[in-house]
Amino acid sequence: MKKASLSLISKFNRQRFRGISPLLSIYYISVNSPSSSSPLHSMDRRIQFCAKTPGLVYPCRNLGTLVEKPNQLPSRQRKLKEKSDLEEAFESAKTSEEMLRAFKDMESCFDERELGLASLKIGLKLDQEGEDPEKALSFADKALKALDQDGKPSILVAMALQLMGSVNYSLKRFNDSLRYLNRANKLLGRLEEDRVASVEDIRPVMHAVQLELGNVKTAMGRREEALGNLKKALEIKEMTLEKDSKELGLAYRDLAEAYASVLNFKEALPFGLKALEIHRKELGNNSVEVAHDRRILGVIYTGMEEHEKALEQNELSQKILKNWGLSSELLRSEIDAANMQIALGKYDEAINTLKGIVQQTDKDSENRALVFISMGKALCNQERFADSKRCLEIACGILDKKETVSPIEVAEAYSEISMQYETMNEFEIAISLLKRSLALLEQQPQEQHSEGSVSARIGWLLLLKGEVPQSIPYLESAAEILKESFGSKHFGVGYIYNNLGAAYLELDRPQSAAQMFAVAKDIMDVSLGPHHVDSIETCQNLSKAYSAMGSYPLAIEFQQRVVDAWEGHGASAEDELREAQHILEELKTKARGTSTNQFPTKALPLPQHSLASRNSHPNVPFNQNSASSMR
Q1: Is 197 left (phi over 0), alpha (psi -120 to 50) or beta?
Q2: Helix H or strand E encompassing 53
Q3: Taking CA 628 as the corner, what is the angle to CA 626 and CA 631, rounded to the nearest 5 degrees?
Q4: Residue 275's closest CA among 296, 305, 299?
Q5: pLDDT for residue 449 is more than 50
Q6: Which of 308, 356, 557, 571 has the fewest CB atoms within 10 Å, i.e. the most exposed one?
Q7: What value does the CA radius of gyration of the chain take, rounded to a whole number of Å?
Q8: Rounded to an integer, what is the distance from CA 519 to the centroid of its chain?
Q9: What Cα–Cα distance (Å) separates residue 614 from each residue in 478, 511, 519?
Q10: Can you give the pLDDT at residue 80?
């Protein structure tokens, strides 16, 4: 929901604000409704506001003062009647074209503030239609200039700012959009703090602003930040809507998807389950909304590696989609099911499923390409590499024709295909596909997170190939992009810094390597915990970097932490523990035979002006351990 309530326009300059409930009905009150309230009124004292229906305010005239016949009306009253007629014409307009014609007639009779209100209503209508964002921007700008002349905070100014943010978002001017929305957010906070308006009247506009902020930040790739705004928007809905309303269920699902997009499946799960609970209760087990809820739960369970639960949700979703005859969605759901079977190691079942699906697809369709990608994955897992490559080549042939039509979908598909070639040790082909994916994603600002993930994988593969200098720019770029998208403490960012440390160590730059490993360790300790396998291996790498510098006291300190961490894993990590203890003894032997005066005895500080220290603000498609574990 991105539009501020058109009905709120009529709420200015009156003695008391009326309650606004429920939120969504107020946001979506049609501007064409016969009961729509007027955004305009004469400033003459003869015109008063009176309520016609609960929550809506209408202008009404004091009929006792209008007793003369039309042809006997004094000049001033004739002007009032002319304004009234123009206002009624504007209010009765059913399309944006009719509103624009009425507005043109009004320009000679109404003052700037009154025209500002009309401009706001037209801007909201045009933004809602979405067909002419430039014209919507023109009216939004007029409204803001007219309503914000005195600099006093008001609901109407907040609505105009929200409209400016919304239209700039539609025009992909994300920085401008963010600037206006942040202003609206601050202004609404002042209104609430100073009690200039009631909380009930602030909430609808605040909800629109928070939701739009979430949309803009997501489009800018700042998904971690966007989650905060989307969660605030949900909290407003929870305070305003009935606890079992369909709209609240949709909001829970949207937030579940947002968390899943940054790979935070644990946080996503409860919101997905709430959405399912509400929609089952309100709409029944066979509703399309329930099918969509089960689809996102399948994604979440897959991310949590609970593949049996994921497949169960998928099968239940498929039944509903079949009942409703939604063939396109059903086809995608069947492909998802095949991928879940692959994740469970049921490769023959997956291949049989995909053979059935491929018959339902058009020759050059994206769905057909997806089927062959999944088929290639299943065959690759069976080590039938020649057959797998044939399937992947067919998929690439289809996708090559779709790059301009569906760049994001094609980029994702190239990335998926590259993983299969990587598994087959065909690194050159994998890197080539990833570079094609990166070229497409760089043109899509909203896919910044995917751009960072692909750049990280290119760097990782170049590192595996021994092309270390070439890998570093890709890894550095990925770290900056993903910090912006997911936050500086996301585990994916930690993996990239670990790989950078490995690269610097390969280049015989142990001091730089130690700094990168230290950053990686700090991130992983927070995001994964110090006893996670990858956190332990990062600590091991930090010890190796200090050892390469000849700084044995520090190398021993971090290697001791590795030993302690593996001991905490018990019998399942006996081999790792023995190896860590062996390395520790070797370090102690080296330390006894070396003077340490010329080497650091304290951990190196984090770099102050390099990649690791820049203050930056899903999905990270690499599960591999970092190039890192250089045992």
Answers
A1: beta
A2: strand 47-53
A3: 130
A4: 296
A5: yes
A6: 571
A7: 31
A8: 26
A9: 13, 18, 12
A10: 80
Q: Which residue has the tokens 């994921």?
A: 310
**Which residue is it, tokens 């407003």?**
236
Q: What is the DSSP letter of 110?
A: S
Burial grade of 607 (CB within 10 A; 0-12, 13-18, 19 or more): middle
Structure tokens of 432?
């080539």
Q: Which amino acid is at 499?
A: N
Residue 481: pLDDT above 60? yes
| Span of 3-17, 82-96, 240-254, 564-578 with lowest mean pLDDT | 3-17
Q: Is pLDDT above 80 for 331?
A: yes
Tokens of 518: 């230290």
Residues contacting 188, CB < 8 A, separation 6+: 158, 202, 205, 206, 209
Tokens of 613: 């220290």
Average pLDDT over residues 162-186: 95
Let me know: does 23 contact 237? Beta carbons within 8 Å: yes
404 token code pair: 């301009």
Q: Is 506 a residue whose pLDDT tops 90?
A: yes
CA–CA–CA angle 331, 337, 343 (5° rounding): 145
Q: Are 208 and 240 in contact (CB under 8 A)?
A: no
Q: Following DSSP, what letter does each residue of 414-474 receive, concatenated?
A: HHHHHHHHHHTT-HHHHHHHHHHHHHHHTT-GGGHHHHHHHHHHHHHHHHHTT-HHHHHHH
Smallest CA-to-CA distance from 558 within 542, 547, 569, 545 is with 542
Structure confidence at residue 610 as a pLDDT band (50, 70, 90): very low
- Lookup result for tokens 């009961």: 35
Q: Assign 51 to helix, strand or coil.
A: strand
How many whole angstroms separate alpha carbon 386 and alpha carbon 424?
Answer: 10
β-strands 56-61, 47-53: how paired? antiparallel
Asked if 202 and 192 touch (Cβ cutoff 8 Å), the reply is yes
Reduced to 3 states, what is the DSSP secondary structure of residue 47? strand
Cis peptide leading into residue 270 (ω within 30°): no
Report d(CA 74, CA 72) in Å as an integer.
6
Asked whether 293 and 275 are in contact (CB, 8 A), the reply is yes
In this structure, what are the phi and psi dihedrals at residue 50, rounded to the nearest 5 degrees? -140, 150
**pLDDT single digits (tens) 530-572:** 999 999 999 999 999 999 999 999 999 999 999 999 999 999 9
The pTM assigned to this predicted structure is 0.75
Which of 10-24, 60-74, 439-453, 596-610 tops mean pLDDT? 439-453
Are 543 and 514 within 8 A, CB to CB? no
Report which listed range, 22-26, 125-129, 456-460, is most confident: 456-460
Output DSSP code: residue 50: E
Q: Which helix (H) or strand (E) holds 49?
A: strand 47-53
CA distance linking residue 406 with residue 535, whole number of Å: 38
- The residues that bridge with 61 in the sheet, in sequence order, are 47
Half-sphere exposure of 229 (CA within 13 A, CB side): 22
What's the pLDDT band for 324 if we cut at 50, 70, 90?
very high
- CA–CA dist 310, 110 (Å, integer): 61
Rounded to 10°, the helix 468-486/491-506 angle is 160
